[in-house]
Design goal:
Elements lengths: L17 E8 L4 E6 L3 E5 L10 E4 L4 E7 L3 E6 L4 E3 H6 L13 E10 L2 E10 L2 E8 L4 E7 L7 E9 L2 E8 L3 E8 L12 E3 L2 E5 L6 E11 L2 E9 L6 E8 L4 E7 L4 E7 L3 E6 L2 E6 L7 H4 L25 H12 L8 H9 L8 H7 L5 H12 L7 H18 L6 H10 L10 H7 L3 H10 L5 H13 L2 H4 L15 E3 L2 E3 L10 H7 L21 H12 L4 H8 L4 H19 L14 H21 L1 H26 L1 H13 L14
Parallel strand pairs: 11-15
Antiparallel strand pairs: 1-2, 2-3, 3-4, 5-6, 6-7, 8-9, 9-10, 10-11, 12-13, 13-14, 14-16, 17-18, 18-19, 19-20, 21-22, 22-23, 24-25
Pfam families: Nol11_C (PF20998), NOL11_N (PF08168)
Keywords: Activator, Nucleus, rRNA processing, Transcription, Transcription regulation
Subcellular location: Nucleus, Nucleolus
Length: 676
């Protein structure tokens, strides 16, 4: 998520429906899904086709699968039965008991108590709500009835376990959160015939003057704080969705933020991060709960100099309109790696801050309208500070400041300064997402090349944009551009006065002439074109830029849609270059090109397959691509034949290797091995 990089995508067949959320088995690093209520699927990252993954058809409908870090997956069925995944896989068709009768499950959660997984779920029947507590490994089940609340009903639940006690929090329709305490009964106790009625106590009331909060999702942050996702209603205005954090100890609203793009109504919390759907994107918001105090609860710790940064939440993830937001967002993320200074001491320190010790966000905000010389001088001083845990985020802020000025002033573009930063600092795309967009706009091919070689998290859309730009630019224009040629200078054939300087290398058992002989084809010398792979179809500069694209990480599923938009002539040119590299690699015994950051045979093959998948129909129809495809087919066929011949003598070669091991190291001998 931090790199904004999709890693995998799997789909069920047409007509099948995923009927519960997919989970990850922490012990085996596998994904577990259920489609069509009863069909269980298990697969790993390297599996591509979901239809070929492990499949088990169960005897009852699954409601939810819960995965625990140390307890393994636990499966809850719609009838209330619970099984651990291991037990279920031993006999997928085993009978699953119906624990609930005419009840509908409304919520479920799984927790670890010691070494035992505990599953809790709530049900509803005719307006009554029930709570079930199960320990599947010891076959323990307890049922409780929730105390009724006149005219109001629970909207959502959440729970946590502390000291052998389940704390169930219920968000009711009267804008209140109630707390229910359920002691975990010993396994030796006999179940009571009539369920016990659980009493509840008021924990929190959402009373904000002039507003009404209608919650739809509730999560527990720590013993004194909860987060609520819901709609905020102000008289005379349309309801607005918001995320708010409340202090349950002092009954106060700690902080809140409107979500103008709307949400799905679901809120997740994991490792001090909120996850929610905001508009059409998954938004991750960092938070930090400090020890609850009255001063913090009533807002006395508010930082007057940084009103946009909450004591608890980095809301800036949701905003990117203003420069200061971007600065404070990255700086706030960096604060996570600082020393464990408590919030109160940090806030009191900020109040006494001197100009020379301004925060990064405040300093860059002050430089927003400074002259170019002052801006670059101050930024260089900022980067020259001794290394700190937040230095990388600070460098990201510096690049953001420069790219923002580039967008506001089209005539300003500090190419050398940006190159210096990217080449000497360990940056990533997510730290400076506007940098490559600005470089594309300015047609800065050298900077794009360096970014492609160094950034591990470039989105596929940007990778395609770079490829399109590299193929579109003219060779004449590239002659005047400084490009790093380390990846091509050692193997790309260079022509002087139309006389090509090249060395004929015969290593892999065949040369170009042998290739043509094996394919039973004769190509007249006078008609030999540049598509036969013997000479590079692009200049050195363009070849170096294309090599940078080949090195960029990508996910095939997400790159293909963009690659299909590549113009046909550019696709053919790119395929010619890939074919040229393929031939060059095949000339070497180890199929490795010389040079620094040269493409590998796997990268070349993967991109050739991608390009053919995206443009095969077009290339078959274009006359100018016919000879290229024919030559590529012949060359691959020749290699297949060559390796088939090698396979025939594999046994003899292994025997030779065995004899070499048996031979005494100090004995000199000449042996003749006859290979039949």
């Amino acid at each position: 998520i931090s790199d904004q990089k999709p890693l995998g995508c799997w789909s069920v067949k047409h007509g099948q429906i995923l009927t519960c959320p997919v989970v990850c088995n922490f012990e085996t690093h596998e994904y577990i899904a259920v489609h069509d209520d009863k069909v269980l699927r298990i697969w790993k990252n390297e599996d591509i086709n979901l239809d070929k993954a492990f499949k088990a058809t169960l005897s009852a409908d699954v409601y939810r699968i819960h995965s625990l870090p140390n307890g393994g997956p636990v499966v809850l069925f719609r009838g209330g039965g619970v099984r651990t995944l291991d037990v279920l896989l031993e006999a997928p068709q085993q009978e699953i008991e119906n624990v609930i009768s005419d009840e509908v499950i409304r919520w479920s959660g799984a927790f670890m108590e010691g070494q035992q997984p505990v599953l809790i779920f709530t049900t509803e029947k005719d307006g009554d709500f029930f709570v079930y507590v199960q320990k599947p490994k010891v076959d323990s089940l307890h049922k409780y009835k929730l105390e009724q609340q006149e005219s109001f009903k629970p909207l959502c639940f959440t729970a946590h376990i502390t000291n052998q006690t389940v704390t169930l929090l219920c968000l009711y329709s009267n804008d209140s959160v109630y707390q229910v305490l359920i002691p975990l009964q010993q396994d030796t106790e006999e179940e009571e015939e009539e369920e016990e009625v659980l009493s509840k106590s008021l924990l929190l009331n959402f009373s904000v003057p002039g507003t009404a909060l209608k919650g739809t999702s509730l999560v527990v942050l720590d013993k004194d704080h909860v987060a609520v996702l819901g709609s905020l209603t102000v008289p005379g205005k349309e309801p607005r969705e918001c995320l708010s954090i409340w202090n349950t100890k002092f009954q106060t609203l700690q902080t809140s933020k409107e979500l103008p793009l709307g949400t799905s109504g679901q809120l997740w919390c994991y490792e001090e991060k909120f996850f929610l759907i905001h508009g059409k994107v998954l938004t991750v918001i960092m938070y930090k709960c400090e020890t609850s105090s009255l001063a913090a609860a009533v807002g006395k710790l508010k930082d007057s100099q940084n009103p946009d940064v909450s004591s608890f939440v980095n809301w800036n993830t949701l905003e990117d309109e203003e420069l200061v937001v971007s600065f404070q967002s990255q700086e706030s993320v960096a604060l996570k790696a600082e020393s464990k200074m408590n919030l109160r001491s940090r806030r009191s320190t900020v109040a006494k801050v001197q100009p020379e010790t301004l925060s990064v966000g405040q300093l860059l905000l002050n430089l927003k309208d400074a002259s170019t010389y002052v801006l670059e001088t101050e930024l260089r001083q900022l980067m020259s500070k001794p290394p700190t845990p937040d230095l990388q985020a600070t460098i990201g802020c510096v690049v953001t400041a420069l790219t923002d000025r580039c967008k506001r002033n089209p005539k300003y573009y500090p190419q050398n300064f940006l190159l210096e930063i990217v080449e000497t600092r360990d940056l990533s795309y997510s730290l400076c997402p506007d940098l490559m967009a600005v470089a594309l706009e300015k047609k800065d091919m050298h900077l794009l090349q360096i970014c492609l070689e160094r950034f591990p998290d470039i989105p596929e859309e940007i990778t395609y944009a770079c490829l399109n730009a590299f193929l579109s630019i003219s060779e004449a224009h590239l002659q005047n551009i400084d490009v790093n040629l380390d990846s091509v200078i050692c193997y790309v054939d260079v022509e002087f006065d139309d006389q090509e300087v090249k060395t004929e290398i015969v290593e892999n058992g065949f040369s170009a002439e042998m290739d043509r002989d094996m394919c039973d084809t004769k190509i007249p010398k006078e008609t030999k074109s540049r598509s036969d792979g013997e000479s590079c179809p692009v200049g050195l500069q363009k070849a170096a830029l294309l090599n940078a694209v080949l090195h960029s990480a990508y996910t095939e599923t997400f790159l293909l849609p963009h690659l299909k938009n590549l113009p046909a002539q550019q696709a053919i040119l790119f395929l010619r270059y890939l074919y040229y590299l393929y031939v060059k690699c095949s000339e070497k015994v180890n199929t490795t090109l010389p040079g620094i950051r040269s493409p590998t045979i796997n990268q070349i093959m993967d991109w050739m397959c991608l390009l053919l998948d995206a443009h095969f129909t077009v290339m078959v129809m274009l006359p100018e691509a016919k000879e290229l495809l024919s030559n590529l087919h012949k060359f691959v066929r020749a290699q297949v034949r060559f390796y088939s011949e090698l396979n025939k003598i594999e046994g003899s070669l292994r025997e030779l290797q065995r004899l070499n091991h048996l031979r005494e190291s100090q004995t000199y001998s000449i042996e003749v091995l006859e290979i039949i």
